[in-house]
Amino acid sequence: MGLIKSAIGIGSLLQRGIGDTIRVSLTADPVQEVAAGFDILKALNLRQEGIQFVSCPTCGRTRIDLIRLADQVERRLKGCKKPLKVAVMGCVVNGPGEAREADIGIAGGNGEGLLFKKGQIIRKVPERELLDCLMQEIEKM
Fold first, then answer.
1. CATH fold of the domain at 52-140
2. What pTM, to 2 d.p., does this model score?
3. How would you write the pLDDT of the chain (141 residues) with one tens digit per residue?
4. Backbone φ, ψ for residue 4 (5° rounding)
5. What is the spatial order of strands in the sheet that 104-108 belongs to?
């Protein structure tokens, strides 16, 4: 709840150009407070360092293990300082558009996925290889 309140309160002020210092207060380790502050700034496009992660909610069209995949991608990119937008999408309906808009992204299909880089399809990859292929491409960027 503290994260939600902080994001709404701080975000709405910064979006209007009010203030130049933020303090996120959570009942958690102060390191998490700093990470939350950075995430708020990234969401507002006020901080360009680090990964901007986009993933879709699961729905009936999802044909890959999206929750596990998105969690693994987010964990592996936690310390990455590259200013990249990474999309992990679960279906062939909305996924390609979102993945195409990111610097790099995945759009899941039936046990496989398309890997996009800078708006272009790089290749089709079996689901079991999606994570490693995505990470290899990010390392090259």
1. Sulfite Reductase Hemoprotein; domain 1 (3.30.413)
2. 0.82
3. 999 999 999 999 999 999 988 999 999 999 999 999 999 998 898 988 899 999 988 888 888 999 999 999 999 998 899 999 999 999 888 888 889 999 999 999 888 999 999 999 999 999 999 999 999 999 999
4. -65, -45
5. 52-55, 85-89, 104-108, 112-117, 120-126
Residue-wise DSSP of 53-118: EEEPPP-TT--S-HHHHHHHHHHHTTT--S--EEEEE--SSSHHHHHHHSSEEEEE-SSEEEEEET
Q: Where do you find CATH 3.30.413.10 in the chain? A: 52-140
Report the candidate in 110, 115, 98, 111 with the shortest Cα–Cα distance to residue 53.
98
